[in-house]
Amino acid sequence: MSTLAPARDTNCLIASALKVMTWIEIKDRLPDAGCMALVTDGLHVTLADWTERDGWTLGREDKAFGITAGVLTHWMPLPAPPAQGQREA
Predict the structure, then answer these.
(1) Which whole-number Å values give the CA distances from 12 to 8, 20, 29, in the listed order?
(2) What is the pTM of this model?
(3) Rounded CA gap, 13 and 34, in Å?
(4) Is 50 exposed, middle or buried (0-12, 13-18, 19+ CB in 10 A)?
């Protein structure tokens, strides 16, 4: 059993959920400083932090998959959290 399978499955689920959201090309616009965002290299989707001083900050696990700040192509803001008291049935 591959240890990468759960990560691929998670990426597929995230990618499906994000089809209704809009990706922003990094070359066109960057998020506000200190903003966490979803980012992609065109294959993987992960979280990253953006600051003007450091650029994109990715986790160690992302680098293990070959995702680096230099290969990112798009980003999107995180959705707002559910309203207080809102729960799934």
Answers:
(1) 6, 14, 25
(2) 0.66
(3) 26
(4) buried
